[in-house]
Specification:
This protein has 479 residues and is an alpha/beta fold. The protein folds into 2 domains: 200 residues, 3-Layer(aba) Sandwich (D-Maltodextrin-Binding Protein, domain 2), CATH 3.40.190; 233 residues, Periplasmic binding protein-like II (D-Maltodextrin-Binding Protein, domain 2), CATH 3.40.190. It is built from 19 helices and 12 strands.
Length: 479
């Protein structure tokens, strides 16, 4: 695992370009196969030139296999803008939710393979390092603020993070403040929630009087939009949402075990903090907008809508969820806050938000010289041009590790401000150690066991087995 914890995060936080973004992650519904300004299935450019003719003419083009479905539209627009400006064809193909690794394997097997792709961290790099060009001599690497944001194989720079993201418990400030003013509220201020016991007491109390809390929130806000159905949004376990629990939530017990042992990776997790994992997941599925038996079919869109439309107070997600919430049109920045995910570990009152990256650009060293040069030029344009920086910072909502964004290209996102504040208050960010999880198959096993447990067709021992025994098995397979 790269050293990207306190020192690195604090350094980035104190610049003008702090956290935002992901997402995460595997969310979204864009399908693989979209193209823009470039390639066809026959491997020809839009102008009809064959690959051989293109190379003979000394021309290059870019094929980017994008990991983030939620930013597909912005990447398509950016690709078109670059082509309009330079004449260089840029294709963006966006993998469907949860399919990036399988899509990458399929695309890399083709003659017309991606020139630009992504890995999620050290484990991903281990699988693809033989395809990754050394970026140490490129313009884009010269703009990276610290090697904490790159992946290396020896001295070779094989991947460069392009977005730093944060996740935690998003909450509705308006509703929580209104609750704090009610008779019998277990807290007087949201600031008192700094551990699992308090979080659970608040959630349980809200769940027990949803109608009363809704009325108090509507009165305080002068609206009628709040009709709470649960303290937490649904913990959806379909493929658009399960990564929030089998990866992002599972990061917490892995992180604390690593901290306890003073390690950065392991071939055999012991599951020391699985009891804490269980109690936060139990809270999610009991104080919820839906019955636990329903979560197998609940989606990330469901959870976003439940929060954005005033049906829930808490929503586990990240900085990347901001725009989707705002686009619903009912909540404003003033309504939005984010707090750490408290699971019941000793000392967690000093814990900050979960911050890191699983998005590292890699250039395919097996591409033609012309395509490699075109890809380098495109990436440099993305992080230095006004068009590229505006898209990354504002349209995509990214916080980047590049010095070229320091002169005003910062994202406007209240979750970013919250992440900054936790660091300013001396809280320790929780590193993204899920990049050391042994495989996607391991995550799928944990997700399936969580679903069985929630819907009552399996017990928690299945989750423990998937977590601990599954880790050892998958580590052995992948190594």
């Amino acid at each position: 695992m790269k050293k990207r914890c306190v020192a690195m995060l604090t350094a980035l936080a104190m610049t003008a370009t702090m956290f935002a973004g992901c997402g995460s992650s595997d969310e979204g519904t864009a399908e693989a196969g979209k193209t823009e300004a470039g390639k066809t299935e026959a491997g020809k450019t839009e102008a009809g030139k064959t690959e051989a003719a293109k190379e003979e003419a000394g021309e290059g083009e870019v094929y980017y296999l994008n990991f983030k479905p939620e930013q597909d539209e912005q990447w398509q627009e950016l690709a078109a803008a670059y082509t309009d400006e330079t004449g260089v064809p840029v294709t963006v193909v966006t993998a469907a939710s949860g399919t990036y690794e399988s899509t990458l394997k399929a695309e890399m097997a083709k003659t017309d393979a991606p020139t630009l792709f992504q890995v999620n961290g050290p484990v991903g790099l281990a699988s693809w390092t033989d395809y990754c060009m050394d970026l140490s001599g490129t313009d884009i690497y010269s703009h990276v603020k610290s090697d904490d944001f790159v992946l290396k194989d020896g001295d070779a720079v094989k991947g460069i993070a392009y977005v730093i993201e944060t996740y935690g418990l998003i909450y509705n400030k308006t509703v929580l403040d209104a609750y704090c003013g009610m008779d019998g509220a277990v807290i007087a201020s949201a600031d008192e929630i700094n551990n699992f016991a308090t979080l659970k007491a608040v959630a349980d109390d809200i769940q027990s009087r949803l109608a009363d809390v809704s009325a108090a929130a509507n009165e305080a806000a002068g609206t009628d939009i709040y009709a709470l159905e649960g303290a937490f949004t649904s913990a959806g376990m379909d493929s658009s949402s399960d990564w929030r629990f089998k990866t992002h939530l599972a990061n917490l017990p892995v992180y604390y075990e690593y901290q306890n042992k003073g390690i950065e990776t392991t071939d055999a997790i012991e599951g020391t903090y699985l009891d804490q994992y269980k109690q936060i997941f139990d809270l999610y599925i009991t104080d919820s907008t839906c019955e636990p038996s329903m979560i197998a079919t609940k989606t990330n869109d469901d959870a976003t809508a439940e929060f954005a439309l005033g049906n829930a107070v808490f929503y586990q997600n990240g900085t990347w969820a901001y725009q989707g919430i705002i686009d619903a049109g009912l909540l404003t920045d003033e309504d939005l806050g984010m707090m750490p995910i408290y699971v019941g570990v000793e000392g967690e009152e000093n814990q900050g938000l979960c911050t890191g990256s699983e998005n590292y650009w890699c250039i395919n060293k097996n591409a033609s010289e012309e395509d490699i040069k075109a890809t380098e030029d495109f990436l440099n344009w993305v992080i230095t041009s006004d068009t590229g920086r505006d898209s990354m910072a504002n349209a995509m909502g990214f916080v980047t590790p590049f010095d070229t964004f320091d002169d005003g290209y910062t994202t406007a996102n209240p979750f970013v401000e919250q992440a900054n504040q936790y660091i300013a208050d001396g809280k320790t960010p929780v590193a993204w150690v899920f990049s050391t999880m042994p495989s996607e198959e391991w995550k799928n096993g944990v997700g399936a066991a969580l679903t069985e447990y929630a819907q009552g067709t399996g017990d928690w021992e299945l989750v423990k087995t998937a977590f601990v025994e599954g880790w050892a098995t998958e580590y052995a397979v992948t190594h």
